[in-house]
Amino acid sequence: MMVDEQKIEVKNIPTGVKIHRPPEGNPNKYASRDRIYVRAVKGLHQSLRRNIGFVFMALFFVLPWIQFDGHQAILLDIFEQKFNIFGLTLWPQDFTLLAWLFMIAAYALFFVTTFYGRVWCGYMCPQTVWTFIFMWFEEKIQGTRNQRMKLDQEPMSFNKFWRKALTHFCWLAFALFTALIFVGYFTPIGPLFVEFFTWQAGFWATLSVLFFTLCTYGNAGWMREIMCTHICPYARFQSAMFDKDTYTVTYDAARGENRGPRSKKDANYKEKGLGDCIDCNLCVHVCPTGIDIRNGLQYECINCGACIDACDDTMEKMGYPKGLISYTTEHTLQGRPAKVLRPKLVGYFLVLVVVCGAFMVNLAIRSPLELDIIRDRGALYRETPEGLVENTYTLGIINKSQQPKTLVLTVTGIDNLQWLGPTEVELAGGESRNVVVSLALDPYEAKRPVLDLTFSVHHKDAPEVRAEQGNKFFSGR
Does a structural domain hold residue 404? Predict the structure, then answer.
């Protein structure tokens, strides 16, 4: 039997690895980040952004100072493991509500991003709000964009020193005030201010204030756009929610190109092959992340609308129609109608409605009482001198409301049980207590070795407000 011999050609594969190195003497080999000098701009979108930022900034600063029913209205006490939110007190057992809140926030963000791009980043993100506040300090002390650039290029002088020093002092002072307010959400804010400035604050409170002061100062004063372009994950996955009907800050290239300067009185610029863009670069100068929106959609864009206001102002001065840069969709630029109701947007909205409904249901069925039963671990049961079988239980009771309550303790499920222990307990608002009780039963009354029973605790003045939990009674038969 003949077998055809097939030869496989063997090739020599080089094992050396070629390493590509940057050319020697490259001045940009370790180029540092270029500082962005943001130019101030006025307009509809910047007024809207400032007003929204002012409202939420005022809420942030005022809310921890509000008193409700004799206590701080919002106090997220981590050490005591309870969150007071006006008339509502949340305990670790209620953290499912916090999970629902996070889901609501996530799907609300997805919904808004799908519809209107990164408007959260441009109008309400704390990083953006604080960065614009720090830039306001910088402008008021050091001057306009051109003045700041000139100041940085000058050698150190008294004028430069005091302006830089005052700027950083204002940044640190505002960062410290921000940190004190933020920590005031987690510890009583009134004593915090007094104790911090009198050097009597606790270790963790002091450490937290200093930590968040440095974070605010570093993020809003130094890092700024780096947080948006390199650290924040939202900029990276936002494109998964965009589609051709998402409203984003967009440059109309068909109208604007070709760019070029011209006289305001030049009415024949289009015959020269020019578009409406006069290439003034103001859209770049006002951008807080330093991008050129004319290069197309970029992940660095935070949809703050500053370039829209700058461009509209230029168009108005030139006598051209506004809207060369605007919130628009890709389909609109292509001459097609934008679709508002589309499957992805409707899907996010429906999921948002569902999670909001689930949160409201969980909040509505939440009981202001919590009951936990722990059996005596030393013995299942014991016999009393009277010949009764006795089981001992520890009742962990939490008054989750913020008002003092008189609570009534009962047990059901077994006839002729004798209750040995307190039947009423006084608990202050937010107080938890362990109550030890014993149940005794004549062994001749027990039909089985293990019997089921149910403990119950309810408000004395409102029996319908109750908490129940089942357990076992060991009869020893």
Answer: yes
Cα 131 from Cα 285, distance rounded (Å): 16
What Å distances lie between residue 54 and 62, 147, 247, 295, 333, CA to CA? Answer: 12, 27, 25, 32, 34
DSSP state of 231: I
Average pLDDT rounded to a whole number, residues 23-38:
63
Residue 111 CB contacts under 8 Å (≥ 6 apart), including other chains: 345, 348, 349, 352
Q: Each residue of 359-378: b (16+ CB within 10 Å) or e?
A: beeeeeeeebbbbebebeee
Query: In terms of domains, do 311 and 391 share one?
Result: no
For residues 322 and 255, state if they share a domain. Answer: yes
- Give domain status of residue 272, yes or no: yes
Q: What is the pLDDT of residues 132-182, one digit of tens each?
A: 999 999 999 999 999 999 999 999 999 999 999 999 999 999 999 999 999
Angle between helices 189-197 and 203-216 (to 10 degrees): 90
Instruction: Kindly report whether the global pTM for this prediction surpasses the value 0.90.
Output: no
Is there a domain that residue 427 lies in? yes
- Crossing angle for the helix pair 44-62 and 126-142, nearest 10 degrees? 110
Asked if 291 and 386 sit in the same domain, the reply is: no
Give me the number of domains the chain comprises.
Answer: 2
CATH number at residue 420: 2.60.40.10
Average pLDDT, the chain: 89
Q: Is the residue at 2 inside a domain?
A: no
Instruction: Out of 28-37, 278-287, 400-409, pick the least confident.
Output: 28-37
Per-residue confidence (pLDDT) for residue 1, from 0 to 100: 46
Residue-range definition of the domain harbouring residue 444: 369-474
**385 and 450 both lie in a single domain:** yes
Query: Is the pLDDT reported for residue 20 higher than 80?
Result: no
Q: What confidence category does residue 396 fall into, taking pLDDT thresholds of 50, 70 and 90?
A: very high
Query: In the structure encoding, which two tokens stand for residue 5, read together?
Result: 């011999």
| 199 burial via Cβ count (<10 Å: 0-12, 13-18, 19+) | exposed
Q: Is the dihedral of CA 231, 233, 234, 237 positive or negative?
A: positive
318 and 385 belong to one structural domain:
no
